[in-house]
Amino acid sequence: MNKFLIPVDGSEASVRAVAAAVKAAALINGAELLVINVQPPIVSGNVKRFFSAEVLQEYYQDEGSTALAPVKEYLEKAGVNYETEVVVGPVADTIASYARTKGCSNIFMGTRGLGRITGLVLGSIATKVISLTDTPVTLIK
Known about the structure:
globular
């Protein structure tokens, strides 16, 4: 069974990654699309002191739903079957772990196109995911 993981962040690059995954899935009968948004955990002690775990979870879900909205719209128009989920954790680690746990055959990710120097200085979630997983990663610019 082919499962394509598409981590999204609400950007245009995410929509392009979803479009590429939809095209690839059309070539393979029965491919599953798993679309996730990863929310980095809030680690500030002050925030945790003033807000309950339930409030923080609600915040993560709201932010994740906002990021998923553009790709859900695209997927509905495309008429494909998909699952969405908002998960919380270190972004690259969580993507790699999710792909492993769900048995994904490929990861489709959008890139922000920061350029060579900026990418080196800031690092890249895509670069980190590639280094953390054995799952093939398709980058979409």
